[in-house]
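lol ok so funny story. i was supposed to be doing the assay writeup but got distracted and ended up predicting the structure for this chain instead. priorities right. anyway since i did it might as well share w the group, maybe its usefull for someone
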Amino acid sequence: MLTPSRKVIRGGRVLDGRAHRAERADILIEGDTIIAMGAPGMEAPEDVELVSAERRLMHPGLINAHTHGHGNLGKGMGDRWTLELLLTAGPWISGGRLLEDKYLTTYLGALEMLLKGCTACYDLTAEFPLPTVEGLDACAQAYRDAGMRAVVAPMVAQYSFFEAIPGLLDVFPDGLRKDVERFRLGPGDAALAAMRQWLHQFPADRGFVAPALAPTIPHHCTDDFMRGCAQLARDFGVGLHSHVQESKVQVIAGLKTYGKTQTAHLQDLGLLGANFTVAHGVWLSHDDMAILAEHGASVAHNPGSNMRLGNGLADIRGMLARGLNVGIGTDGANCSDNLNMYESMRLASMVSKVQGPDTDEWLTTEEVYEAATVGSAKALGFEGRLGCLAPGYQADIVFLDLDHVNWMPLNDPTNQVVHTEDGTAVHAVMVAGRMVVQDRRPVGVDLERLSAKVEAARERLQATTAPTKVLCEKLSVIVNTFCPGLAKTPYRINRYGCGCMSSGD
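and the output, tada:
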């Protein structure tokens, strides 16, 4: 990447989300950092590059607290999928990938996010049957090449979805049970060794792209494997990210496996801490929320995919009331079908409003905006560096076109960035002091050539995975009977997180 010069941005309005204002201000940038902000026409060195922001509303880059880079080549491949049907289809929609596909799918998602005002993400990327140094490096390089910040976390497990759900394999006919053996993952010690090797050789400069670890779902892993991931995270000072209590099926599977909630079990294993992020948390109890808050953990709220997969509506008010940090994410494009953080903010606001008539319990637009910026920044480990436009913060800035129909008229900028903006008014995006989107196009990217590469990959992967698709469709018929039945199991959880099956809801 080119080294940014000193710049002064003049003539724009800076969004103050909490105050619901967007006053005119100039911004002085040196290198990749904001060093001063002041009234229009503020004094600046003579040798700075002038960036005009006339008729622009500026806000910090949105931060996607949870996505899956491997899912970007799988957008639109399914409709009426529960989480469990998505996982059943996983070997089909994400199978057959070459190293070039792993780069391409990540790069494609990075461009989409940048074009829609998102400048950083937490990417839980998957490889089968094991993570590889080459594959993970390709994902990290895709973000660097796109000019987007990311935390890249290999998503790992020991058990396939079919092995992890209690009783599921038992209902498969013998032939299908044998067929799913091809979806078994590599040994846990091999996954840990690969991740250790990757972390050991990861560049020391982690301000732009950083590593983390993502044991995918607790009951997809043995306790020893989870502890191994936690030890690796401690050894290398990186984050942990896991899908916790995302669906009712996960809750029941956790209770059957541990006799307690996944959150309570993770606490017993010693995984919870300020570096731990819960993905989704739709079915967290209030005691689970309190446990997570006590440990300084975060939750990545993904309202779009929570509804898309029928998982439910997360209680974000309950989380915030207990002091739990909340970020906002899109989830992967293979299950949310886009990576639009403006849409995720709007949905986060709307979801809170359909859970009851008490307006005091509804999220405010400033709370949603803060979650998508500083809340997500904390989840990524970039607290105090990203999520604000202020001296000392990184110069990651989105420029919205105030002449776009979304901003006619400009009434309340906080309400409108959450409820009105859909990404179409994004005119330019700056990351680390360098323009990566200009005039609504990614700088230096031939989109037509990229489209041809993506289409060629799609055709090749469609042919390669055709037999797997047939098998997954057979499996989905059984999964779609067994898992909804499992989800109907009544249960109770006490204040210590311990649960039992009960005779009533």
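The mean pLDDT is 96. The first helix runs from residue 83 to 93.
back to the writeup now i swear
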